[in-house]
Automatic annotation (TrEMBL):
The gene is Trmt10c. Residues 180-372 form the SAM-dependent MTase TRM10-type domain. It comes from Picathartes gymnocephalus. The keyword DNA repair does not apply. GO terms for molecular function: tRNA (adenine(9)-N1)-methyltransferase activity; tRNA (guanosine(9)-N1)-methyltransferase activity; tRNA binding. This is tRNA methyltransferase 10 homolog C.
Amino acid sequence: IQSANMLLRKIVRSSVLPFAAQHGMKKDLFPLSRTLSLSLCLKQDKSCEPSEKLDLDEWKKVMKSGLQEEVSETVSEPTELSSLAAARETLEMWRLAGRAVPENISEEQLKTFMECPSKSAKKKYLRYLHLKELHKRNEKRKMDEKRERRLEAQDQASKTDETKKSSFMCVWSSTMDKAYNWRAAQSMIFGQPLVFDMSYEKEMSVREVTNTVSQIVLSESCNRRSVDPFHIHFCNFKEDSLYHREFIKQYREAWGKLLITVTDQCYTEVFPKDKLIYLTADSPKVMKIFDHDKIYIVGSMVDKSIKTGVSLARAKRLGLETAALPLDKYLLWSTGAKNLTLDQMMHILLTLKDTADWEKALEFVPKRKYCGFVNKPVKELKKTLDLINTLKLGKGREEVGKQFAKSYSKKYKLK
């Protein structure tokens, strides 16, 4: 038996195993050779010891488990990866066949392609991805061309500007900046104070505070370039407040170099109360003339929701005099609230301070809010009112005449 077993092993090693190695069947025949050798050994043991019995069921279970382990070791790639690879090969074949297939496809799109129920659905999905890819490519090409045209235009403009600029213009701009700063420095000593009330942060949202700071920056720039600038005061200004952070974003390094006065005190603590006038659109008192001896207060607030009476209530609580601009007296008001932006208020106050002319000052009111000035010919005002009320409100001519008679004095009536 031992000699037969050894002979069987030699035959397997010399003839069967080389043949299996050439055809990739070595792992499949290895359990068979082991089974044959084991069976011969078992027979030899059985002949020597006939009293021992072999449990064939246990032996089959052991052999099956070993075979399954060897088969599982041969499979290295997951099923999902193999299916994705097969799908990519299918797409490559369709692309070579001339079908509408995208060049770049992600794994999620590939999984969606595999989940399509039919071949026509897969074709439609691939066509959709192909068209989407072409659209993105065209958009990118257009954006690149637009960017190149813009850069070329900027280069041409910079070349023309360089030819136009001269040393005289550079010296002129630097000299004017020095002159503006000198005027602002003089206004801090001799100029009329103008107060911005910075105590409305809690009444506004973050976006409204940002808009307020932007308008104040425009107001400060306009004031610095005027002939006779105001001495601007920021009162009730808190450190590290939302106002403060927005000003630093706007001015950056120039924030500490501004020629203005910033204080956390209230304006009633800095100036006497009898000289303070709070400008608010809700005031019942109308401003008639610009007083150079008074100190005007402007609320630093952008009110998108039109919260009426906030600044008026603050002024009454502090016992201050209030005033409103005479918009109804000089302007034929059309629509909208009578609240103006802070930079518009700065333009109006500067013009009043220099010229004392209300018509020139109120030209900074947006044209969309009024039809014209009241001192125009009566026929022109009547025609404008008639057109507005007829188109917008659908009123008749008689009702328009009644409204015109109520709104204006008797000397402007039509006979």
